[in-house]
Amino acid sequence: MAGFDKVVNSYEEAMAGLEDGMTIIAGGFGLCGIPEGLIAQMVKMGKKELTIVSNNCGVDDFGLGLLLHDRQIKKMVSSYVGENALFEKQLLNGELEVELTPQGTLAEKMRAGGAGIPAFYTATGVGTPVADGKEVKQFNGRDYIMEESITGEFAIVRAWKADRYGNLVFRHTAMNFNPMAATAGKITVVEAEEIVEPGELEPSEIHTPGIYVNRVIKANFEKRIERRTVRQD
Fold it and tell me: Is residue 134 part of a domain?
């Protein structure tokens, strides 16, 4: 990796600097748009006491769920438990700290963190346990709670296309939380389906500019389906 060229050739280089106790912002929704290879590298590195900020925690045997098996995650900041039975078990047994956060609020926490905004007000969660311990303020006769933004030492992101300068294009629903996550990491690592040369991406197509990205790696994705449903005759 030299100059503006952000492409790295190994997962070891992509995740260099990951240490115990760090906060990781992860793109993806279920198994859609997750950086599979970067997660696998985190499992391989065996770092512990991690805080993971992501919509959910994959499934039992894939995605972020793999980090639960070796007790690498100390805390999850997410919006739902999903299809992960181990996530549910560790939560109910008190083995895993979980901060459940409404989806829209979680997305805005990432976006605001990336924009340098320390906190914001939202009506979501007013009058529910989500508001417990948080400042409440009234605007135009309506109550709002203050939510703090969030950033991490690392952000791991999946893109459809990336150029060598780190400009990113996401595809369809695989976009999900990835653009917000990309802005919220001190070191943002992108796993891309395709890497192209600078100038090949139309400026109007770029979703995330390369200024937010530190490292890019090319990978082939397994693209699992979280739940396959077939019609019963």
Answer: no
CA–centroid distance for 231 within its chain: 32
Please give the model's pTM, rounded to 2 decimal places.
0.92
Question: 167: domain range?
Answer: 11-116+150-218
* Domain presence at residue 77: yes
Q: What is the biggest distance separating any 2 CA atoms in the chain, rounded to whole angstroms? A: 59
Partner residues linked to 168 by β-bridges: 162, 208
Measured between alpha carbons, how far is residue 193 from residues 26, 34, 39, 125, 161 in Å? 17, 12, 15, 37, 6
Tell me the CB-side half-sphere exposure of residue 184, using CA atoms within 13 A: 30
What's the CA gap between 184 and 112, in Å, rounded? 8
**In this predicted structure, what is the pLDDT of residue 30?**
86
d(CA 158, CA 221): 10
Assign residue 162 the CATH number of its domain. Answer: 3.40.1080.10
- Asked, for residue 226, whether it belongs to a domain, the answer is no
Domain assignment of residue 61, yes or no:
yes
- Least Cα distance to 225 among 68, 48, 89, 34 occurs for 34
Q: What pairs with residue 62 in β-bridges?
A: 59
pLDDT in tens, 9-23: 999 999 999 999 999
In whole angstroms, give the CA distance from residue 27 to residue 47: 19
Residue 9 phi, psi dihedral angles, 5° rounding: -110, 0
Identify the pLDDT of residue 220.
78
> How far is residue 157's CA from residue 177's CA, in Å, rounded to a whole number?
9
Encoding tokens for residue 163?
């150029």
35: left (phi over 0), alpha (psi -120 to 50) or beta: beta
